[in-house]
Amino acid sequence: MTATAEDRIRTLIERWAEAVHSGDMDGVLADHAEDIVMFDVPPPFEGVRGIAEYRATWPPFFEWQANGAAFEIESLDVTAGDDVAFAHALLRCGTAEELAADPATRLRLTLGLCHEDGRWVVTHEHHSFPLTETPSSVGDV
Questions:
Q1: What is the pLDDT of residues 86-118, one digit of tens each?
Q2: Which of 4, 32, 64, 104 is deepest in the core (most CB within 10 A)?
Q3: Is residue 91 domain-resident?
């Protein structure tokens, strides 16, 4: 049976998540475009552009994660056309203490991919956590 584009992308994302969890930089960078744009939870607020800036974001995360934090895909949905695709996922991401204190919190992941030279590559990556506190300015409106 031939794998569908969705199957290939799902495998790509699952390999990426395993690489993130194990601190494997080569695995994290694999299948990412040279001109990737990423919006992450920590600054810079304008995001990072290019594989070199993307690479530079990971060592602090790996250092934090080495203290026993989880990075596990809980759900993953993929939609693919012939040349472009997107995926969104929810991940358990946090230390045991953080996850125990707020077990429902999930990291939200959105990926944009392009089919280039016979393979799928991640061109856009966005990570976010839901805002759990209402800013005081919102309540004052």
A1: 999 999 999 999 999 999 999 999 999 999 999
A2: 32
A3: yes
